[in-house]
């Protein structure tokens, strides 16, 4: 198998369970690392700073939902070592696809769980023994009034901006970003 083969630019999230699997912060970090290159469980564990045995459950779940795949295997000291790779650089939630499997409320709840995971990561920054606060931390909530055309334009520009910064900087610091753009039901003026 070719380990550094190109992966899809975008792939749909095929099920509500797959979306829930991606909502987990640890699994999301794993998929993000596997977007850049093929890695073994040992390499993933070293980069994430966690025990290798904990990864196998998550790798099996991600593989089972079609979010990652095995791209190479080899024998190492009588044990099969696998290299994994994400199937795409971006995963998109197609609500129409998921609507055939779940209610709108379940899909919304699964998507909101991604934001909950980000909020938990943000809360963890203030825990004793964590890294010093980031002076460039940005948290913002904005209500806009946009036509459908301008909302679509904003969505496309945000996606392009994220894609522009997707490649890792050598020696760069890991940052986390969450985006949610949706038609509000509130009465923001």
Task: Note the main attributes of this structure.
189 residues; alpha+beta; Arc Repressor Mutant, subunit A; three-stranded antiparallel sheet; two-stranded parallel ribbon; 7 helices; 5 strands; 44% helix; globular
Q: State the strand order across the main sheet.
A: 2-4-3
The span between the termini is 55 Å
Count of individual beta strands: 5
CATH class group of the domain at 8-132: Mainly Alpha
Give the structural class.
alpha+beta
CATH architect. name of the domain at 8-132: Orthogonal Bundle
The whole-number mean of residue pLDDT values reads 87
Describe this entry's structure for a reader.
There is one protein chain. By secondary structure, this protein is of the alpha+beta class. The protein has a domain at 8-132: Winged helix-like DNA-binding domain superfamily/Winged helix DNA-binding domain (Arc Repressor Mutant, subunit A). It is built from 7 helices and 5 strands. It has helices at 16-23, 25-36, 41-48, 52-64, 95-99, 104-124, 148-164; strands at 8-12, 39-40, 68-76, 79-86, 88-92. A 3-stranded antiparallel β-sheet has the order 2-4-3. A hairpin with a 2-residue loop joins β3 (68-76) and β4 (79-86). α1 runs parallel beside α6 and α3 crosses α4. It starts with 7 loop residues before the first strand and ends in a 25-residue tail after the last helix. The model has no long low-confidence stretch (mean pLDDT 87).
């Amino acid at each position: 198998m070719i380990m550094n083969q190109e992966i899809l630019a975008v792939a749909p999230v095929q099920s509500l369970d797959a979306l829930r699997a991606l909502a987990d912060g640890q699994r999301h970090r794993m998929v993000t690392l596997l977007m850049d290159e093929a890695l073994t469980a040992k390499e993933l564990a070293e980069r994430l700073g966690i025990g290798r045995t904990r990864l196998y459950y998550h790798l099996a779940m991600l593989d089972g939902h079609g979010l990652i795949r095995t791209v190479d295997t080899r024998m190492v000291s009588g044990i099969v070592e696998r290299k994994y790779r994400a199937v795409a650089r971006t995963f998109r939630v197609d609500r129409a696809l998921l609507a055939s499997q779940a209610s709108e409320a379940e899909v919304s709840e699964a998507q909101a769980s991604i934001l909950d995971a980000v909020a938990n990561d943000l809360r963890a920054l203030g825990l004793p023994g964590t890294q010093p606060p980031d002076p460039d931390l940005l948290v913002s909530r904005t209500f806009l009034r946009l036509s459908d055309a301008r909302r679509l334009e904003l969505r496309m520009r945000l996606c392009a901006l994220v894609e522009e910064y997707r490649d890792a900087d050598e020696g760069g610091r890991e940052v986390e970003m969450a985006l949610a753009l949706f038609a509000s039901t509130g009465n923001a003026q």
